[in-house]
Design goal:
Strand order of the largest sheet: 3-2-1-4-5-8-6-7
Number of helices: 8
Radius of gyration: 17 Å
Mean pLDDT: 91
Low-confidence stretches: none
C-alpha cells in the first residue's frame, strides 16, 4: 500500500531550479528577503512571551528545539539558530538543503539540515518546542495531511506558526497578477491561486490534533515605505499561532 505523502514533486522541482538564488536579496527570492523582518519579529515576540523568555538577551531561544519545515535555503533557519535555538531545517529538495548547508558553513552556524519530509520526521517520532510552517502549505499536495503531520510534532507546551496566503479575490489580484505579472516580484507560476488556503481551512485541519489556534494576524505590504508589517487585514498574507497546552497535573 502506498504511504500518504504531502509532497508535490512538481513544486519541489520548481524551487530546486531556483535554489542557487536563495541568498540573493535581489534575485527570485527577493520578496522573502523583504518579508523576513516581519516574520522574525513575530516569531521572536511570540516565543519570548509564550515561554517567558528574556527579550533583552541576544540568544533567548537557548535550549529550544525548533523545526523549520520547508526551510528552502535557510532564510529563517539561520536567524533562529543565531537566537540560540537548536534548529532542524527540513526540505524535500536535496538541492535546497545543499545550498542551505553551504551558506550555514560559510556563516559558521550549526544547523541540522535534512533532505526529508514532515511525514518522515513525524514517523520517526521527532518532536519540537517550535514548528515553523512558513509559506509551505500553498505548495503541498495535501494540506490537511500536512497540517496534521506538522501538528503531531509540536510538544506539549509548544507551538506552531503557520504563514500562507488567503484564497480571496484580493489575493488573486495582488498575490498573482500584481506580484508575478505586473511587479515581477516572483517568477510567473510561482503560486497557484487555487492552492491558497483560507484560515478557517487551516483551523479545521488542526481540529483533532490537540493544537489550539489562539491568534491570527495579517501581513501587508506598504508600497510607499517599501516594508511589510503586521496588520488586521488577512485578505492576502496571514500567520496563525497554534499551541499545544501542557497536560494538567493529576
Amino acid at each position: 500500500m502506498t504511504e500518504s505523502t504531502s509532497v508535490d514533486e512538481t513544486e519541489v522541482a520548481r524551487f530546486s531550479a531556483m535554489a542557487s538564488e536563495w541568498w540573493d536579496p535581489s534575485g527570485k527570492f527577493r520578496p522573502l528577503h523583504k518579508f523576513n523582518p516581519v516574520r522574525l519579529h513575530y516569531i521572536r515576540e511570540k516565543a519570548c512571551r509564550h515561554f517567558g523568555l528574556s527579550t533583552s538577551v541576544s540568544r533567548p531561544f537557548e535550549g529550544l528545539q525548533l523545526l523549520d519545515i520547508g526551510c528552502g535555503g535557510g532564510l529563517l533557519s539561520e536567524p533562529m539558530a543565531r537566537l540560540g535555538a537548536h534548529v532542524t531545517g527540513a526540505d524535500a529538495s536535496n538541492t535546497n538543503i545543499e545550498i542551505a548547508k553551504i551558506h550555514a558553513g560559510q556563516s559558521d552556524i550549526k544547523i541540522d539540515y535534512r533532505a526529508t519530509t514532515a511525514e518522515a520526521l513525524s514517523k520517526n517520532g521527532e518532536t519540537f518546542d517550535i514548528v515553523l510552517n512558513m509559506e509551505v502549505v500553498e505548495h503541498v499536495a495535501d494540506v490537511d495531511f500536512f497540517m496534521q503531520t506538522c501538528a503531531n510534532m509540536v510538544r506539549p507546551g509548544g507551538f506552531m506558526i503557520t504563514a500562507t496566503l488567503n484564497r480571496t479575490l484580493k489575493s488573486f489580484a495582488l498575490g498573482i497578477v500584481g506580484a508575478e505579472y505586473i511587479l515581477r516580484w516572483l517568477p510567473v507560476g510561482t503560486h497557484k491561486w487555487d492552492r491558497f488556503v483560507k484560515p478557517g481551512e487551516l483551523e479545521l485541519a488542526l481540529k483533532d490534533t490537540g493544537l489550539e489556534t489562539t491568534e491570527q494576524t495579517g501581513v501587508t505590504f506598504n508600497p510607499i515605505a517599501n516594508i511589510w508589517s503586521q496588520s488586521k487585514d488577512m485578505d492576502v498574507n496571514y500567520m496563525i499561532f497554534s499551541e499545544r497546552k501542557k497536560a494538567r497535573p493529576v
